[in-house]
Amino acid sequence: MRLLINIDVPDLERAIGFYEQAFGLTLTRRLGPAVAEMSGAQAPIYLLEKAAGTPAAGAARQPRDYARHWTPVHLDVVVDDVDAAVTRAVAAGARLEDPAATHAWGRIAHLSDPFGHGICLLQFLGRGYDELAEPALRYPAVSEADFEDLLALRIAAMRESLERLGRFDPERARSRLCATFRPEYTWAIELEGKRVGFYALRPDGDGLRLDHLYLHPSSQARGLGGRTLRRLLAQADAQGLPLRVGALRGSDSNRFYQRHGFVQIEESEWDIEYLRPAQAKTGG
What is the DSSP code (8-state) at residue 140? Predict the structure, then answer.
């Protein structure tokens, strides 16, 4: 797909001067007396001279109006220094409407050009929009050879809770994982290519059982557990099956499962059993 940007203006010569001075665009060529092609952006920009009051489109009731107006489509201009860019644009004739504000991804200032069109000036900082994007997760299958790595993840994930209860014992952790480890029902959790956890989901009577769901402490509190669990809930829902899971008494995992619709059905000295009832079957 190739994008072209068209901007209606009431005065072509004035618009050419503004976009050259404000944003450093260059007049490439003229396509007749009322169209100017501007270069310097990732997509060509065409300035189209259209008189105020003329119909904007056959189905549009509102005629062209170059007073300040709102439109859901606008220009975002990415710059290296938003403060310097604001100064340059205002000197060329832009109107500053909101001074630059700082967000997790960078800084943004809101302006309008001399023809009423909204324009945002953006300066990315750090990782830019990547700061807002959910990191890529993968769930590759595991094998018997992965047991020691998965054991280390389980120990790291549960250590704080077990120490708080006075039950931290690496050998007990080994024996419990060994008793339930079935590679054909176990998947690693990889964050941007790095293994950060694993889960085990297997058939259990009339439903499914989540034997394990662990994340390394360095990858906790980032929404990764919730994303993974929602994936598993979707699998259960697609089959119309209930999902069972056990949680260590006193651990944060109890609140985690409760938030995702699990209800307590029984408890023992050290563990609490939860059930997420079958939902209406989806898909198909």
Answer: -
- Residue-range definition of the domain harbouring residue 232: 137-276
Please return the burial class of 109, using the count of CB atoms within 10 Å of its CB with bins 0-12, 13-18 and 19+.
buried
Residue that terminates a domain, selected from 116, 131, 146:
131
Helix H or strand E segment including 235: helix 224-239
Query: How many domains are contained in the chain?
Result: 2
Are both 189 and 217 inside the same structural domain? Answer: yes
Residue 277 and residue 263 in contact, taking contact as beta carbons nearer than 8 Å: yes
Report pLDDT for 171: 85
Which of 109, 131, 153 marks a domain boundary?
131
Under 8 Å between Cβ of 233 and 199: no
What is the pairing mode between strands 75-78 and 118-124?
A: parallel
Residue with tokens 């997760």: 137
- Under DSSP, is residue 229 helix (H, G, I), strand (E, B) or coil? helix
In terms of domains, do 175 and 146 share one?
A: yes
Give the pLDDT confidence of 212-270 residue by residue, as tens digits: 999 999 998 888 999 999 999 999 999 999 999 998 887 788 999 999 999 999 988 87
Q: Per the structure block, which two tokens stand in for 178? A: 């060994």
Please state whether the predicted TM-score (pTM) of the whole model is above 0.70.
no
